[in-house]
Design a protein that fits this description.
The protein is of the alpha/beta class and 319 residues long. It is built from 8 helices and 6 strands, in the order H-H-H-E-H-E-E-H-E-E-E-H-H-H.
Length: 319
């Protein structure tokens, strides 16, 4: 009897464990949260970025004021310089779709860069230098050079700190004395931005940056709820632009140019690898030849030594 009772308990335990395992398995397959309705086009598209802000200069003016932390009311003169987006240019490799502006006498360059292609700070410095040096007609005094600012919205982490916003200016390394107020760089790293639910509704700067980070329709709706009229206008402009055939055509050209660029870079890397392989093959072949020559010389010397040793042995035998 005790033995039967023991068997019965074991059967009961087994019967209870099986349904539990099934429930766990079912839970794992059904509790995944939906990611939301993916946007076909995101604000990270440089074609969309430029077309939207060129077509809606009031939104661009507000964005610049927010990113540079200046009152929008203080901007009296605002002008976008490079508004053109010719298809033949967008269809080319390495085409930049940045926005150049004149803001109360200052030159400002705004760009969104999603992929880390390396050497981005140097690239910013190069474009800053081109803007700065092109601002002074021949014969004019250097004091007339305008304050020139580069604003970069990045889709990757560029700096070590946790701050989303980093500002740079040339300064003396010990006294921290600014060399000139005419050179400024602002970087906004989207990868360091908190999720939309964690963003304070009073932080318009973070709301704008979260807009560039948005990947789903649900995120856009959350931003509209938090940001009110400003975010509503931006999202409405986004939907209007992305619905046009012109944008969709330019986006196709941009995507094709991106593929061509990636292919060109890939081919360049392959050619470089072939050159390196060929170089080292030549080095190895040269070393092999040298070693073979040295081995032949050593063999000749060994044969000569053996011959001399044999001659000495014969002479000793005769003696």
């Amino acid at each position: 009897m005790p033995q039967k009772e023991h068997t019965s308990k074991n059967s009961k335990k087994t019967a209870v464990r099986k349904p539990t395992a099934n429930k766990t398995t079912t839970k794992r397959t059904t509790t995944k949260k939906p990611k939301g309705t993916k946007l076909i086009y995101t604000f990270k598209s440089d074609v969309l970025f430029k077309m939207l802000f060129v077509r809606y200069p009031k939104l661009l003016k507000r964005l610049v004021a927010v990113l540079l932390n200046i009152p929008i009311e203080s901007i009296t003169n605002f002008q976008t310089i490079n508004t053109e987006m010719p298809p033949e240019e967008i269809g080319k490799k390495f085409c930049r779709l940045d926005i150049n502006m004149l803001v109360d006498g200052k030159k400002i360059n705004l760009e969104i860069q999603i992929e880390d292609e390396g050497n981005y700070p140097e690239r910013c410095m190069f474009h800053w230098a081109k803007m700065f040096t092109s601002s002074l007609p021949a014969g004019n005094d250097y004091s007339l050079l305008p304050k020139t600012i580069v604003i970069s919205i990045l889709g990757f982490k560029q700096f070590k700190g946790k701050q989303v916003h980093s500002e740079f200016a040339p300064m003396e390394v010990n006294r921290h004395e600014i060399l000139s107020d005419k050179q400024r760089y602002h970087f906004f790293e989207l990868a360091k931005l908190p999720d939309i639910d964690s963003i304070d509704a009073t932080s318009e700067k973070n709301l704008w940056l979260a807009l560039f980070n948005a990947e789903t329709e649900e995120e856009l709706e959350k931003l509209i709820t938090k940001g009110g009229d400003v975010m509503s206008q931006a999202v409405e402009a986004y939907r209007g632009i992305t619905a046009t055939e012109e944008f969709q055509y330019l986006e196709i050209l941009r995507a094709r140019a991106g593929h061509d660029e990636a292919q060109a870079m890939n081919n360049a890397r392959k050619q470089e690898r072939k050159k390196r392989d060929k170089h080292w093959q030549g080095v190895v072949a040269e070393k092999d030849t040298t070693l073979a020559e040295q081995a032949a010389t050593l063999a000749e010397q060994a044969a000569l030594i053996s011959k001399l040793q044999a001659q000495v042995k014969n002479q000793q035998t005769k003696i």
